[in-house]
Amino acid sequence: MEKNSADIFFFFSLPFFFFPPMACSKIFSGNLPELLNEIIQYFRTDFLTLHSCILVNRLWCRLAIPLLWEDPFSNPTANYHFIRNFLYNLNDNDKRKLIEYEINIDLISSNTLFNYPNYIKCLNTWKIFHYIEKWIDFIKLGTSLNSDKIREISKIIYNSILKNENNINLRTFEIILIRDHDYFNDILELILQNQNLILNIKNLKISFNGIIKTTNIFYDFLKFLYNNCKTISILYFHHKMNYDDLLIIKYCSELIISQQNLEKMLFGFHIYNSIFLSLKNSNCSNTLKTIIFYNINFKNITNFKQVIEQLNVLKSIHILYCFSLNYDFIQQIININKPFKLTSLFMKEKFQIDNFQALLQISGDYLENIGLLTSNKLKYQLLEIIIKYCKNIKFFDLPGFDYQNIYLSMDLIKKFNNHHLNYIIIDFDRLHILNQPNDDILNISSIILKELGQILPLKLEYLDLSLSIDENIFEIFLKNSQNTFIKKLLINNKIQIGNENILSFIKEYIMKKKKIDYFAFKMKDDSDDSIEKCKDLFFMKDEVKIFESYNIKVQNYGDLKIQHYSYIEEMY
Asked: Which domain holds residue 17?
């Protein structure tokens, strides 16, 4: 058999549409390694497949290993043993220290096939601290260590991972400060000693989730960033705590001004006028394409108009769960002397109808993602305005509904289902279950299922139904929608009755006809003593195997459920 015959057989067994452009010519020209690399990139987040690739042959292994290890702290193994592979090159002094702390160094690999730290492209300061601490606890089998000893062991591991010889060249660096400032400073200090680590970062996230105890190391680090890291393309400021550190504000502003190719910017929770204004006084005016505002209070943002007007290539603006979208702020938007390309709007507080209408009159053509308030008050009028002014809705999230607005919601879905609508979330949330009679909940859920089954488009990327489901009505829904292919289907039945029949109907109408790729099913279970009193199909292993036999991946409901923030971050 020829050397690459197994690889070639694999490629010709793939569907034609799977191949990237020019793939066929590369096969016949003999450029198989390059083509293999292109194909394996498609499995970047499919770790099960990547692990399988390792077992094919040496070439496949060499191509898959870098993808598996580029962000190891985001996908840790259950026992955290992956950390051992970072410690094979400890010096004798560090080994002695570990022995002093009663760490069994026999657990550490004496040699490895690859230099695993070299493949790291993404690093999150909180995750590296958190999972190293978990690993220490695991190998000590619950034996308690004081914080000083844990910190010393952690520093040894940090140094083993981040030292110069590993030639790490980070693409993404996330500075997450939650607690334990000493650990945080230890990591920053090591990075400042090995500056090549972050010289070429493209994605930088700075997140303060706790009280900031600033140190000179942190100030030095921010100064290093704005003096040396000038090719960042994605920059996030995610500050849950309001702070008055003038130096941090100044250095964050300088960081924005220093950038030469910033394309995407996120402001989360707190925003300062001076930091926001720095967008106006930087190179960003001709590079910035996307701005995301997440949980921001716009009350004191008085320079919004003048900043947005200076951004010449801005393609999309996303407002997620923000406050103070009042008359004064909407007037700033209306007075902007260029199109206001509002692409996403997920509401957190009540809109004045006049303000909402004024906003959509100028931005409705650009709006693609919309999430309404949980409260039903004014929802009917909001839906009318969306239907009137919007043309390109792709993502529709309806949390809570009543008899008054449910038919208009279906009209909205029907309007967009033949054009762009690809993500639908309909959730009878807990607040409404507590505030409405059970008969009403069941009746409204049934109306939704009857109507929705008749108007779904032929293809959906994502459908999430969290309802009180009558099994007979659900079968009608499945019959009516059996021509629709849904890549990711999520069902959350909020009543206990009929779950077995519902699952049987799904197998008959969806599973056997291979109408979905991913599936999650959560059901109420009053026999469970847990607080949630729910059970998830994901943990019913025999049932999961049945779905897998039809190439359908069953996932935990919570894991498959879209988080709006993550969706916007990924898609734009």
From this structure: 5-69
Q: What is the distance between the alpha carbons of residues 58 and 464, in angstroms, rounded to a whole number?
A: 41
Helices (H), 194-295: 216-228, 246-258, 273-277
Beta bridge partners of 493: 467, 523
pTM of the model as a whole:
0.87
Q: Is residue 538 part of a domain?
A: yes
First to last CA, the chain: 46
CA distance 294 to 496: 36
Please give the full DSSP string across 459-517, using - where no structure is assigned. Answer: EEEEEEEEE---HHHHHHHHHHTTT-EEEEEEEEE-SSTTHHHHHHHHIIIIITTT-EE
What is d(CA 5, CA 287) in angstroms, rounded to the nearest whole number?
Answer: 47
Per-residue DSSP letter, 512: T
CA dist 391 to 229, 360, 418, 422, Å? 40, 11, 11, 14
> What's the rounded Cα separation, in Å, for the pair 221 and 189?
8
The last residue of a domain, from among 69, 97, 117: 69
The residue count for the chain: 572
CA dist 296 and 363 (Å) reads: 20
Q: How many whole angstroms separate alpha carbon 437 and alpha carbon 467?
A: 14
Q: What is the dihedral of CA 244, 247, 252, 255, to 10 degrees?
A: 170
| Residue with token string 């009929």 | 498
CATH of the domain at 536: 3.80.10.10
Helices 181-193 and 147-162: crossing angle in degrees, nearest 10, is 20
The C-alpha atoms of residue 360 and residue 424 are separated, in whole angstroms, by 20
Question: How many domains does one find in the chain?
Answer: 2
Q: 529 in a domain, yes or no?
A: yes
Asked whether residue 206 is domain-assigned, the answer is no
Residue 97 amino acid letter? K
Contact between residue 520 and residue 560 where contact means Cβ atoms under 8 Å apart:
yes
* Tens of each residue's pLDDT in the chain, 572 residues: 444 444 544 544 444 444 455 555 554 445 677 888 888 888 888 888 898 888 888 898 999 999 999 999 987 776 778 888 888 888 889 988 888 888 877 767 677 888 899 999 999 998 998 898 888 888 875 567 788 888 899 999 999 999 888 899 999 999 987 765 678 888 999 999 999 999 999 999 998 876 666 678 889 999 999 999 999 999 999 887 666 778 888 999 999 999 999 999 999 988 888 899 999 888 899 999 999 999 999 998 989 999 999 999 999 999 999 999 999 999 999 999 999 999 999 998 888 899 999 999 999 999 999 998 767 778 899 999 999 999 999 999 998 888 888 999 999 999 998 778 999 999 986 555 555 667 788 999 999 999 999 999 999 999 999 999 999 999 999 999 999 999 999 999 988 676 789 999 999 999 999 999 999 999 877 555 444 567 899 999 999 999 999 999 999 999 999 999 999 999 99
Task: Tell me how far apart the alpha carbons of residues 350 and 429 are, in angstroms, rounded to a whole number.
Answer: 17
Which of 27, 52, 69 is where one domain is finished? Answer: 69
User: What is the Cα–Cα distance from 498 to 500, expressed in whole angstroms?
Assistant: 6
343 assigned to some structural domain: no
